[in-house]
Please model this.
Amino acid sequence: MSGHLFTYDSMDKFLSALAADSSIYAPVLLAGRGRFSDTPLVRYGRVSRAKDICWIHKSYLSPKELLFPPRETLFYFTPGRMEEAPLGDDKRRTVLFLRACDINGIHRLDRIFLENGGIEDSYYRRRREKLVFFLIECSESFENCFCVSMGANMTDDFAAAFRFEEERILAKCASYEYDPLFAKFADSAKYEPNFVEENAVKVRLPEIKEMPLELYSHKIWDEYNTRCIACGRCNTSCVTCSCFSISDIFYDENKNCGERRRVWDGCHLDGFTDMAGGHRFREKNGQRMRFKAFHKVYDFKKRFGENMCVGCGRCDDVCPEYISFSNCINKLAREIRGDSGKNT
Amino acid sequence: MNPYRTIQSRIIGISKDAELEWTFRVETSLKPCPGQFFQLSLPTIGEAPISVSGFGDGWVDFTIRRVGNLTNAIHGLKSGDSIFIRGPYGKGFPLDKFTGTHLVIAAGGSGLAPVKPLISKYFDNQSELKGLDILLGFKNPGSVIFPDEIKKWKKKFNVVVTVDRGDNLWKGKTGLITERVKEMNLPEDGNVNVVVVGPPAMMKFTAAEFVLRKIPQERIWVSFERLMSCGIGKCGHCKIDYHYVCLDGPVMNYSMAARLID
Model:
C-alpha cells in the first residue's frame, strides 16, 4: 500500500509527534485581517493542529518568508565587535506545508541565494537546510493561477504529500525517515498526489533567445506608467522575488550599538536603483514593469535555464490596481509573435 | 562561511585629492586586480561598494567622494581609525587582452579612480603595452583629482586633460572629452584597446565616439557603477538584463554593455 489515511484526530497526534524536533508551518487563516472588511487573510504561520492548516484558499503571502524573512539581522554591533546574528532553535527542523508552485519557487530562490556568482548566502543556507517540504495537493486551480503554463504545477521534491478533505486527510510518505511516524499514526490507504493539469489562465511565453531592442521601450509598457502605483505588493507576495537592501541601524539607548539588517526590496519600489550622488534608473513605473516581466519570463532563464515565474498568480491577487501579470506576459508574447492585433 | 563578514582594517593614510574626493589608504593583505571593488562599511552607519583606486604591498587605496551618510562619516575618520572591508569583488580589466596592444584610457571625473591602478600598473611596466594615451575630463579645474599623478604620468605617456568649463588660470584644454576623442591620433594598425570609465552619459557618448573612430565594440571596455547591497549576486540591485554588475562587471566589454538596458 503506497499511501496513508488520517482522521483529523490522528493527524493531530502525528503533528504533535513531529513537533518534538520540528517547527511546523502552514498557511493559516487569520479572521478579519484581509484587504476588505470582514475578510480573512491567509498567510504562513506556525501550526500544531490539523484544523489550523488552511488548505481551501491560496495564501496571500508566499512561504518564502520562512527562508528569507522580510527583515533579518545579519550582524549585531557592540563597540569594537561585530557578531553574526544567531539562528534561534538551531537544531529544530522546519516542516513546511506548501503547494507545488511554491516548492518550485523555492528552487528558484536557491538559484539566487545558493548558486549565483558561486557564493552561498549563509543566512539563507542555514534556514534552507532545515527545511522539509510537505506538499499540499491542489484539488483544483485557484483564481489567477497559471502554474501549468510555467511548468511549475508538478514536483517530486517533497518528504510527504497530503490531500486535505473535510473529514479526512490522505497522505503519501516519500521519505524513509518519516515512514515510522506515518505507520504509527495513520491507516493504510491508496493515495498518489494529483497535480493541477489545467488552469483557467494560460500564458504564452516569449520563447526567444534575444529580446528585440524595441520591446524595451515598447508602448505595451506605457499603461503601467499610470496604473502601477509602485507599491511593491507584487514583489513582496512573489515567492521568487529575492531582492533586498542592507542597512545599519543604531539603538536609541546606545548609539555605539546596533545591527546590520537586510530587508525585502523590490524593483517596483522607489529608490531601488538610487545611487549616492542622485543618479537613478527606471524612473517610470512602466519601465519597472518591463524590468520585472523580463526577469520573470526571459532573462532569469537566460542565466539559469528555467523561467523565474512559477505562475502562482499572487501578484495578480494582491495588486491594488488590478494589474494582471499573466495578461502582461501574453501581451509581450503577442508583440514578439507579431500578431498583436488578435485577441488570443 | 559568512560572505557578509567584514574585516576590521586600519586606515594608514589620507590624501585630500579634491574638495569632495579624498583617498583613504587601508592596511590589508587582500590583493585586488585593477577595476575591482570592495564593500566598505562603518558599523551602525552603513556599507557601500567602493572601487579600488590603487594598491600595493599590504595596502589598498579607496578614493571616496563625499555624497552621503557613509561617505560623510568616512571623511570624518583619521589615520589610525578602523574601517570594515570585504572583497575584492567583480571582474577587473582584462589585462591579458591589453598586453602588446596600444591602450587608450578615457576617464571622466571620479571615473579616474578605478582606472588609476591600471595606469599605475603600466607606468611601472611600460613594455607590456605598445603605447598608452590618457584622456581625462573634469567639470572644472577644481575637480581635477590626482594632479600629482597626472604630472608624473605625463613623463611617460600622452596625457590630455580637458575641463568642461575653465577659469582664468586654466591652461589646459576646454570642452567635453568627446571632442578630444575626435581630434586624437589613433594607431592605424587596429591593434588598439580602449577603456572608457565615467558617469553614464560620458561613457555612452565617449564609447560612441570611439566607435565612429572605427574602434570595434569588442575592443572597448567600460566600467559600470550601480547601487549594490551585497556585491555577491544576491541583492538584485545591480542587475541589468541577465547580468549582475557585481559578478559580470563592473568592467564589461562594450559589445555586451552597449546592449544592456536598465
Notes: The CA atoms of residues 107 and 240 of chain A lie 9 Å apart. The two ends of chain A are 46 Å apart (CA to CA).
